[in-house]
Specification:
Elements: H1 2-16, H2 19-24, H3 28-51, H4 57-85, H5 91-120, H6 122-141, H7 165-172, H8 177-204, H9 209-217, H10 220-237, H11 239-250, H12 263-294, H13 301-330, H14 332-345
Helix pairs in contact: 1-4, 1-13, 3-4, 3-6, 4-13, 5-6, 5-10, 5-12, 7-13, 8-13, 8-14, 9-12, 10-11, 10-12, 11-12, 13-14
Length: 373
């Protein structure tokens, strides 16, 4: 299971590298529909192979890789498409709603998925998951309006330098560079701690599966609250101050997991820590997403978001593997403590001063793009 999760994420991220420029110079809505259909086809192959008696680990690995790469391309196209759909003043509201939806799915998905597996079996549940991508494709296809054609859409050849344009843009922008490194380190360490925490809670401390589900599902309500608070907080205190404060606070919570104990006190502690972490993430994430769009030219959004997602996926895979080895050598609590300690330092990577509000960064214009900032 660990190999399946890590390899799918890592290889999918590598395969997604050329998808950034490919997405950039195409209409985004058809790309999003196409990526949903790719994931639908990949997941549908699992119950089909099972019915024919040919399902094996290799196929599951390929499905994981395809879904990971398609997910990165979908998110890159979605971010770019959002910027063309909405005026600048509405981006934070939209990103806050996306964030609230994400935490709703995180809160409800695992319990409902576990119940579906128990009642209907894994094959039916995977089939339902596949159908969800088909419904998503139909929903996106139903969006009205005319999407402008990117200027380079007719050029068939992809220049090699365009593969790395997203990273070049991030690393040469003082407004984005510190947030990029902060995000990949924080996300990587949080995700790297999750398998260790599962072993600690379910194994060493004897949590039951429902208790384990509770301590991670209940705090997701904080994500909803944080996402709803993001815009009012920015309106009152300013974008930079909110991003700096929430980004700093989210790094302070995970160290508390070192002190978890069996029974009710342990449940209360984990819920409290996770609630604080998730609430801060609920505020930080939509503000960061909006800030990133504001500081990226419309003709570079897809490549920038792809580079960001690829780097994040690679960091999560590497840190998860590394922290697993660290836990094997030093113990689970020690590894969790080290992750929490490193997280306490990550606020130093946040920008200390608010950058000058950007005009549309220089770059090749996109015809008909209303989303100038």
């Amino acid at each position: 299971m660990a190999a399946l999760a890590a390899t799918g994420r890592a290889v999918g991220a590598v395969l997604a590298v050329p998808l950034g420029p490919w997405v950039e110079f195409r209409r985004k809505r058809p790309v999003m529909v196409g990526m949903d259909l790719v994931r639908f086809a990949a997941l549908t192959s699992v119950p089909a192979a099972y019915a024919l008696g040919g399902l094996g680990f290799t196929q599951l690995l390929l499905v994981s890789v395809v879904c990971a790469a398609a997910g990165i391309a979908f998110n890159a196209a979605g971010g770019a498409y959002l910027k063309t759909l909405l005026p600048p003043q509405d981006l934070l509201t939209a990103n806050g709603r996306f964030e609230a939806t994400t935490w709703s799915a995180t809160m409800l998905g695992p319990p409902l998925g576990g119940a579906a597996v128990g009642w209907l079996g894994p094959v039916v549940t995977v089939t339902a998951d596949a159908v969800s991508y088909l419904l998503s494709a139909l929903g996106i296809r139903a969006i009205g309006g005319q999407e402008p054609r990117p200027e380079r859409a007719r050029e068939p050849r992809l220049r090699a330098g365009e593969l790395f344009e997203g990273w070049r843009h991030i690393l040469t922008r003082p407004a984005l560079r510190p947030l990029f490194f902060n995000a990949i380190v924080v996300n990587g360490l949080i995700m790297a701690s999750e398998p260790l925490l599962a072993v600690l809670l379910l194994g060493d401390l004897g949590f039951t599966p429902w208790q384990y589900g509770l301590v991670f599902a209940a705090p997701c309500a904080g994500g909803l609250v944080g996402a709803r608070l993001a815009r009012p907080l920015v309106t009152r205190f300013g974008q930079h101050r909110v991003m700096l404060t929430s980004g700093t606070l989210r790094a302070c919570w995970p160290i508390g997991l070192v002190f978890v104990q069996p029974g009710v006190p342990g449940i209360v502690l984990v819920i409290g820590v996770q609630l604080g972490l998730v609430t801060c993430c609920g505020v930080f994430n939509p503000v960061l997403a909006t800030y990133r769009l504001e500081h990226t030219a419309s003709d570079r959004v897809a490549r920038t978001l792809t580079a960001w997602s690829v780097s994040s996926s690679a960091a999560i895979a590497a840190l998860t593997a590394g922290w697993g080895l660290l836990a094997a050598a030093t113990g689970i609590r020690t590894a969790i403590a080290l992750a929490g300690t490193v997280l306490l330092v990550t606020p130093l990577l946040l920008p200390r001063r608010a950058p000058v509000p950007p005009a549309e960064p220089s770059g090749t214009a996109v015809q008909g793009d209303p989303g100038r900032v």
